[in-house]
Amino acid sequence: MSTFLWGAATSSYQIEGAFADDGRGPSIWDTFSRMPGRVRNGENGDVACDHYHRYLDDVQLMAGLGLQAYRFSIAWPRIVPERGVVNQAGLDFYRRLVDALLERDITPWPTLYHWDLPQYLEDAGGWPNRDTAYRFAEYADIVHSALGDRVGDWTTLNEPWCSALLGYANGEHAPGRKEPAEAVKAAHHLLLGHGLAVPLLSGNIGITLNMSHVTPATTAPADVDAARRIDGIQNRLFIDPVLLGAYPEDVRADLAHLSDFGHVKDGDLAVISRRIGMLGVNYYSPALIAAGEPAPPGSTPWIGAESARWADGGRERTAMGWEIDENGLLDLLQRIVKDYPPIDLYITENGAAFADAVGPDGVVHDADRIDYLERHISACAEAVNRGVPLQGYFAWSLLDNFEWAHGYGRRFGIVHVDFATQKRTPKDSALWYAARIRKGGL
């Protein structure tokens, strides 16, 4: 594919820092990361990669690697730091970033929401509160009015599964609530916010879902049903409303002990399923599922599938403990094509954390990451050969960054960041990826 798009991705809270600069208000991650025991070593994103002040250097780094597109997220509390207040300094930062990208022929791919909800909206109820969806649409309109003349590719939400389930069901992520019934509402209102924002944007519009190829550990009926339930909560609870305009009946039944879905109002699903131009797929690892109680601690965001657990597939694992299986990506992409209406697909995140470090020679030799990327990009090529309308690939992540509850203890970047000095060092994987981009096509 001569037009295949190659890029890398980041998110605002993970890299920007400048948490109180130029009028930015607090987000739920600012609050959550200050709660004792929530984040590794009490770390937070106050400085992170200091991208807010170093964006020009980072854009030059992207240009040196030959990136054709850069997927970043916009910090909602930097734009609307309090209700009814539009922060022009925040908008100006993203204008400067977009202009710097365009000057270097790098296509900007902004995501409007990558988990950093303004704290004042959480104080008013957060995503379980229907009003948050309308506030998101207002915010989307503000950003599009500022950047729409420069930006033609938009993602509304990144991984609403994480926002809803990790944030409101088991409390592993901000805002740290353990209210499963509220998580069901949050999932719907996130999707409603997406649908409300779609007509306010222009160009190539989509949503990004973190999806997994889910298979049962055995053919035993209990394992098969456990896998069905996990697939329903992980995948179909989100993709079906967006592309089919309905919640799966079996998933509604699985969640009946938590919700009667009375929060789904007439017309909501028509809004959520408004036509979009692309679906972003974030893929990291497969899900091999067996029946049985999940292992503690905190390993169960699976509302509706409480008696399901991950089985060991005997594969290599990343530093996150995630199994590596590129065939799962191939199978997932083919499944989307088979089960859903035609839509352009992009891999909007794919990558791996490993325990790499700058060596005595000043180089980061990360052969394991190169192997991971090469295998998954090969799976993408095979998917295209089989007729999957895959249009692009974004490596996660451009930079080592603040990895949520893991703080700075997990490194996904193709560029190493020394967080004490902010020195950037392209890893071997960055040089490999640059060569792969120069090769062209897929």
From TrEMBL:
It holds the Pfam family Glyco_hydro_1. SUPFAM superfamilies: (Trans)glycosidases. Transmembrane segments: none annotated. It catalyses: Hydrolysis of terminal, non-reducing beta-D-glucosyl residues with release of beta-D-glucose. Keywords: Carbohydrate metabolism, Cellulose degradation, Glycosidase, Hydrolase, Polysaccharide degradation. Its EC number is 3.2.1.21. The active site is at E349. InterPro entries: GH, GH_1_N_CS, Glyco_hydro_1, Glyco_hydro_1_AS, Glyco_hydro_1_beta-glucosidase. GO terms for molecular function: beta-glucosidase activity. The keyword Ubl conjugation does not apply. Belongs to the glycosyl hydrolase 1 family. This is Beta-glucosidase. It comes from Nonomuraea typhae.
